[in-house]
Amino acid sequence: MTAPSATRPLLHFAPEQNWMNDPNGLVFHKGRYHLFYQCNPEGVVHANLSWGHASSTDLIDWEHHPVAIRDDEAGQIFSGSVVVDVGNTSGLGTTDDPALVALYTQAAQNPNRQSQALAYSIDDGLTWTKYAGNPVLDRGTSDFRDPKVFRYDGPAGAYWVMVAVEAVDRQAMLYRSDDLINWTFLSAFGPQRAVDGVWECPDLFPLAVEGDPGDVRWVLLISLNPGGIAGGSGTQYFIGDFDGVTFAADDDATGDAIDWLDFGRDCYAGVTFDALAQADRTLIAWMSNWDYVGSLHAADGTLRHPMMTLPRRLSLVSRDGSLRLRQQPVSVQLADERVLEDIPVAGSRVVFEEIPDAGRISVRIDVLGAAGFALRLRFDGADEGVVMLTYDADARQLSVGRTDGNVAIHDDFPGSQMMPVAGGNLIDLEIWLDRASIEVFADGGTRVLTDLLAPQHGRALAVEGVGGQVHIERIAVADAVGPDMPIG
């Protein structure tokens, strides 16, 4: 069954129907971005896991394709990745027309075993053939999953590298191959830092530090559940070095502190596209949380399509003597902004009577001597259905408070999520709204908070000075523009 049209996201990727979770096999090939994802072709619950498929030329307008890799008697199709086999190292395509090769987790139930299997496509990802010799990598364990494969070319040589996880052991396992079929062990990383849940969906890639293209570091993403910073599902990242064999996290970056990709409740299993230039490294994550995802399909009016986050361009920047991962939304078209400037606010003031179902709010506020400020989104003059974004100047902290509207979704759904920021009097925020979600980018994109939202009833945006007067230097609202979102 499909979600009611009033809750279908306008700005984010969502399947046409049924269950969806982790993004898989993100790859850029012949001018198209391919997004595969965990799906249940038969219903709205987490079962019969297979790979759904959509593609796009711009990361905005997605064309839906038939199910790509279907579960069978060998097991369900868990998370994995896709590479373009340039050079035809596998022999499954040709040198002139290389195959797309998927490495994914084959999850068998009797006995309970997870191993890595291969499928390939010679028609640009539209149809897939499972390799007759599957599985291609089997450790004989029950929680070895989520292979992310990339082409390494460095001092140690040129070959394929796989990073997967022994989930319960909280270890990232590294393997190498010359042909994508035969794999040999390189090394293991972890457990380190956030270990209160199982490790899942790793990704490992190089990024240059902004302003110094010769300073290239390696970033390791690890999703974990539970144990996320906001509760339940979350994703941490490590910055370090990979020499072709071993990944080592930098001690001089943040030490034992945990770097979180996102401080909200609903950004999980994010991975990046293969075959893009290093400077175009782009991530998409699943916008949900295992704490309550099952309840999101429970009742009419609370249902929203499962969806992915906005695509985010990644880079490394130096902040306060440490390197941080920076995320910036990409490929979103906007109508002309409605802009207000130079507005003093004492108490509460409605600044826009209407904000879009989907679009961006840009805010620059001088706190002056106040304790902070609050933004009421979807404001209707009452507390019901209001989303509150608050800045606490003393704590140097942003928080997003959400309710579950007029229908109880789950005990863990309402509440507030906190995010540390650099602080100071002048605060710049970039807020992206959709019908059932909010993504807040602060500190130039080095701090991000993503939350699903219950259906909201208000349309206005109000600003409130907390503990004194604040000054709005600039606040702007712009509607998103897409194939189903005409201007005006």
UniProtKB/TrEMBL annotation:
Domain named Glycosyl hydrolase family 32 C-terminal is located at 363-476
Keywords from UniProt, A to Z, are: Glycosidase, Hydrolase
The UniProt entry, under Gene3D superfamilies, shows: Exo-inulinase, domain 1, Glycosyl hydrolase domain, family 43
**Alphabetized InterPro entries for the sequence:** ConA-like_dom_sf, Glyco_hydro_32, Glyco_hydro_32_AS, Glyco_hydro_32_C, Glyco_hydro_32_N, Glyco_hydro_beta-prop_sf
Boundaries of every Glycosyl hydrolase family 32 N-terminal domain copy: 12-329
On the tree of life, the source organism's domain of life is Bacteria
* Keyword Amino-acid biosynthesis attached: no
Gene Ontology molecular-function annotations: hydrolase activity
The UniProt entry, under PANTHER family, shows: EXOINULINASE INUD (AFU_ORTHOLOGUE AFUA_5G00480)
Q: Which family does it belong to?
A: Belongs to the glycosyl hydrolase 32 family.
Protein name as it appears in the record = Glycoside hydrolase family 32 protein
Q: Which organism is it from?
A: Microbacterium profundi
